[in-house]
Amino acid sequence: MHGEDERGRAFPAGLTPAQLRRRIDPASLGFETTETLEVVQGLIGQDRAMQAIRLAARIGHRSFNLFVVGPAGTGRHSAVQMVLDHEAADRPVPCDWAYVNNFEDEQKPRALKLPSGEAQRLKAEMEDLVDDLGAEIPALFEADDYQARRKAIEAEFADAGSARMQEFAARAKAEDVGIVNTPSGFLLAAIRNGEVIEKEVFDKLSPDEQARIEEKIARFQKELNAIIEGTPALVRAHRQRVIALHASMAEQAVQARISEARANFAGIDSVQQYLDEVAQDIIRNAELFLEAHAQGRDGPFPAGIRKIHRLPQFGRYVINVMVSHAEGDKTGAPLETEELPTLNRLVGRIENIAHMGALMTNFTLIRPGALHRANGGFLVLDARRVLSEPFAWEALKRCLQHRTIAITSMAERLSLVQTLSLEPDPIPLDVRVVLVGDRMLHALLVMLDPDFSELFKLQADFEEDFALTPENAELFSRLLASFIRREGLRPLTAAAVARLLEEALRRAEDSEKLSLHLGVLADILREAEHYACTRQDCADEAAPVSVEDIEMALTEAERRNARIRDRMQEAITRGTILIDTDGAVTGQINGLSVAQIGGFRFGRPSRITARVRMGAGKLVDIEREVELGGPLHSKGVLILSGYLSATYALEMPFSLQASLVFEQSYGGVDGDSASSAELYALLSALSGLPIRQGLAVTGSVNQAGQVQAIGGVNEKIEGFFDICVARGLTGDQGVLIPATNVPHLMLRENVVAAVDAGQFHILPVSTIDAGIAILTGVDAGVRDADGAYPEGSVNALVEARLASFATARQQFGRDRIGKVTGNAEGSGPA
């Protein structure tokens, strides 16, 4: 198929339909429906990443944590889950951990390490122990033996105090001094004939008699004071005897019950030591059980079945289980995934309760985090979520560096509250952390965080595509079959699988590679099954999904997302946005770009114009001047300047002033894929040759004039094609693309059909000379042995124009110098 310009000159034939879209023959797949295919275990095309995940799971050295890199939808999470599930099942079940009361310092709870499954058993044992002692200790104190021993102590101390006072009273009475009991205490007074001497009588006694009486009273008062002062010591001795009696009585019940508990946990040294501490504390605090018994005396339940371990005062004996692997749980090491990795949910937290207007806490309010649950196994986290949570990343690094889990609250880090807090023992940490993130995030962590590379030494980099071969096509088909069976979907026909393979090629932007963004294909499958279930001719529930269902799913998905694209195309067809698709214009060309809204990409043409005049060799990029051009676009424009100055007018100054602009572009412009179009516009403006407006251009260029590959080639071609279809195909419309982009073509069927009918053309070019010849219909020209371009060629016209600029500039310079010199001579004296 050939097109002709306005001069009637033909331009080269474009690509054939076979080069525009690779087709998969359903017959080559070797099956009728996916129901007959064997399932695939795991992912395909990800051998490198899977090997890294397995290494991270098996290596025993510390700091070999893993960062999984790759775009969403490539199966990163499922691959990690699958490999770690298998590896965790072969590892031993880790130990249990619990926090218990520190009876010496309650602000520093102790971490208790127990064999797997023993933490919950110890917790239940302690609850039973407290309940049992709650019945046994009060029973001992109500027994006749205790009552007799208590009465003996009371009688002993009562007799001791009474005997001293009686002996004192007898001696005082023998010397006529009596003890008077008053509301303010004991007083001594002189007596005569058994009666207290009244003050009037005492005053009438002789001075010698009064002095003798006062001396006796003073002497006996000292003895009475000594007796009174000795009473507290007697009371203390009494109390100590009672405490000793209580301890001895409680010890009988406690040691018997503790011995049973010790036997139940024989061989576990940490539990044996803890039970010793519990026994001593219960013996010292036996009154707690007596008070609980007294409080529940009038309750509805007998003492033997009351759950007194639930009372607040017995919280000191609670076993706060942080992590336990009880019997019946999954064997092997734990595999945890924390979807919301806040500081508290990662390293644990210490809760508070409000009491009398104040915040209170104790060791029973310590709660575990994901690191506790994953200890001894694997923890999978989303990297972006961890980094977005305050203090979570620093806490994770600190735990990995010190190999311990230290609980720190955010309020404590920020010093927001001044409350009494706990300092629980850190728990030793043995965990393999797996972060899942994208490549940009990984690069930023490597560059900005010096700790990252030390802690995460392994990287699992997921591929985005893999080669299309007969073997890989079979693997891909089996992978689809595996997904269908796992999700309970209908099977696919071979034609439907072939269409999905073609879509995978398009998603990979390569006719030789299949995309591994499996999440997108999974959504297409689910939507296609919906259409298969709603077809009137598909009453059979086992009927497979057809190629028509796949096509409908693809078409409807594009239609749902194409509102912005359709509005842009409407604006072009109505003339609001100026784009020519026929005729020829000097210094004007249709460039192509790709816009992306969410996950939907589409191509759109943009008018690029160039204007030239004599100047000082400056190439003005208007987009850059107004700060709308990105660095890559600016780089492309600077390359144009290098190409022009090195290709034309080599023996004269580069005397060009040129401006380039994307017309009606009101947003940012970046990328160098329009640099070849901009160069074509410049060459047209310099040569005076018009450019065919029925052709659009994409491709970058280097300083040697070679056209280089770009991205989004399919969307760019289709974007211009849609505009041409809306205005009517003329047969001389098409797109110039880099020849190196030909393997990337997977165009829509309607584009291929138009090319096959000769109504549209895809023209590959390798050099600027080849492209400008097609656009203008004039040969670019090659320098002959004398270094001159053929007369009338594009390059000859460009060089002649640049030479005229240089000559004019030189003449302008001489004229300016002559004028200045003439003025200077005419201004001298006559």
Automatic annotation (TrEMBL):
<dbReference type="InterPro" id="IPR041699">
    <property type="entry name" value="AAA_32"/>
</dbReference>
<dbReference type="InterPro" id="IPR027065">
    <property type="entry name" value="Lon_Prtase"/>
</dbReference>
<keyword id="KW-0378">Hydrolase</keyword>
<dbReference type="Pfam" id="PF13654">
    <property type="entry name" value="AAA_32"/>
</dbReference>
<feature type="active site">
    <location>
        <position position="673"/>
    </location>
</feature>
<dbReference type="InterPro" id="IPR020568">
    <property type="entry name" value="Ribosomal_Su5_D2-typ_SF"/>
</dbReference>
<dbReference type="Pfam" id="PF20437">
    <property type="entry name" value="LonC_helical"/>
</dbReference>
<feature type="active site">
    <location>
        <position position="716"/>
    </location>
</feature>
<keyword id="KW-0720">Serine protease</keyword>
<keyword id="KW-0175">Coiled coil</keyword>
<dbReference type="InterPro" id="IPR008269">
    <property type="entry name" value="Lon_proteolytic"/>
</dbReference>
<comment type="similarity">
    <text>Belongs to the peptidase S16 family.</text>
</comment>
<dbReference type="Pfam" id="PF05362">
    <property type="entry name" value="Lon_C"/>
</dbReference>
<feature type="domain" description="Lon proteolytic">
    <location>
        <begin position="583"/>
        <end position="778"/>
    </location>
</feature>
<dbReference type="Pfam" id="PF20436">
    <property type="entry name" value="LonB_AAA-LID"/>
</dbReference>
<dbReference type="InterPro" id="IPR014721">
    <property type="entry name" value="Ribsml_uS5_D2-typ_fold_subgr"/>
</dbReference>
<keyword id="KW-0645">Protease</keyword>
<dbReference type="InterPro" id="IPR046843">
    <property type="entry name" value="LonB_AAA-LID"/>
</dbReference>
<feature type="coiled-coil region">
    <location>
        <begin position="547"/>
        <end position="574"/>
    </location>
</feature>
<dbReference type="InterPro" id="IPR027417">
    <property type="entry name" value="P-loop_NTPase"/>
</dbReference>
<protein>
    <recommendedName>
        <fullName>endopeptidase La</fullName>
        <ecNumber>3.4.21.53</ecNumber>
    </recommendedName>
</protein>
<dbReference type="InterPro" id="IPR046844">
    <property type="entry name" value="Lon-like_helical"/>
</dbReference>
